[in-house]
Design a protein that fits this description.
By secondary structure, the chain is α/β, with parallel strands linked by helices. The chain folds into two domains: 7-45 and 165-306, Rossmann fold, CATH 3.40.50.1100; 69-149, Rossmann fold (3-Layer(aba) Sandwich), CATH 3.40.50. Helices cover 38% and strands 18% of the residues. It has nine helices and ten strands. The protein has helices at 26-29, 52-65, 81-93, 107-115, 128-142, 156-173, 189-201, 247-261, 267-283, and strands at 22-24, 35-42, 73-77, 97-102, 119-123, 147-149, 180-184, 206-212, 241-245, 285-292. The longest helix has 18 residues, at 156-173.
Length: 309
């Protein structure tokens, strides 16, 4: 089994983080090149509903080792999923949580964060998560005894969570047969951590990074790195290939996953699928694993779900 960072406290919600299933896309697979096997890492199976539970737990445990106590408020900038993970873990372990979020944060995410008791500090919508980061950093600098700033975009524990858990899980679940990893870039922690682990096991594994095709897009949690503030943990030497996906194609792929496979996922998962299907046409054979970051229930207010397949 892959070691868990919180075995001693496995009876609380933190003990449910990780060990998510690897799913074969049976119905979509039939339309792919016969020599390509297509799998999805179901990160929505984490207790907070996303891959960010892993990074949040590792950042929390790392902070505790460095002296964090419940006297300090957990602080970070987020567009949703990391905030939900931190709010959930904070509630379970007795920490106050404050989150800097863009003003256009969806109603669904606001309600989830409020349900966990998080304090929301709204930043200009036009500045996205980059603006939220600036506000969070300013708060942390102005009140260092009050806040513990996790800074997920520059926190080494972010990618280490995936090096130590997600990567080993994928390798074990494919019996070491994985030939291609397909993952979207947000904080880049998932891609960097999983990618570094897989490279440590096999130099032949191809790492495929996915990002939006323009700076103005609707793929939640994913960055267009050429025009955004680049995370400090990003390792540009890792990708063998970078693929871009339009918002419309990501949305169509998310609808397809719901209607053909029964998996209700977010647009970042749709983007990973769209890229993987195009990759399959190129490679003709291989074992492709996509990371599906979260479930789609937080996105049901978006109109694209109402469109025909």
């Amino acid at each position: 089994m892959v070691p868990h960072p919180n075995e001693a406290k496995a009876s609380n919600v933190a003990g449910l983080v990780g060990r998510t299933p690897l799913l074969r896309l049976d119905r979509i697979w039939k339309d792919v090149i016969p020599g390509v096997e297509l799998y999805a890492k179901a990160e929505w199976d984490n207790p907070g509903g996303s891959v960010k539970d892993r990074a949040a737990l590792y950042m929390l445990r790392d902070a505790e080792r460095r002296g964090l106590t419940p006297a300090r408020t957990l602080l970070d900038a987020t567009s949703g999923n990391t905030g939900i993970a931190l709010a959930m873990l904070g509630a379970a372990e007795g920490y106050r949580v404050a989150l800097c979020v863009p003003g256009n944060l969806s109603v669904e995410r606001r309600r989830i964060l409020k349900a966990f008791g998080a304090e929301l500090l709204f930043t200009p919508s036009t500045e996205g998560t980059d603006g939220a980061q600036r506000v969070a950093r300013s708060l942390a600098e102005s009140a260092p005894d009050r806040y513990w700033y996790f800074d997920q975009y520059n926190n080494e524990a972010n990618w280490r969570a995936h090096f130590e858990t997600t990567g080993p899980e994928i390798y074990e679940q494919t019996n070491g047969r994985i030939t291609h990893l397909v993952a979207c870039l947000g904080t880049t922690g998932t891609f960097v951590g999983v990618g570094r682990y897989l490279r440590s096991k096999s130099r032949g594994v191809q790492l495929v990074a996915v990002q939006p095709d323009s700076p103005f897009h609707g793929i939640e949690g994913v960055k267009h790195l050429e025009t955004a503030k680049v995370p400090g943990i990003w390792d540009p030497s890792l990708p063998d290939l970078t693929m871009t996906v339009s918002t419309e194609d990501a949305q169509a792929a998310a609808r397809r996953l719901a209607r053909e496979e029964g998996y209700l996922v977010g647009t970042s998962s749709g983007a990973a699928l769209d890229a993987a299907l195009r990759l399959a046409e190129r490679i003709r054979e291989g074992v492709v694993v996509m990371v599906f970051p979260d479930a789609g229930d937080k996105y049901l207010g978006d109109r694209y779900w109402e469109e025909a397949a």
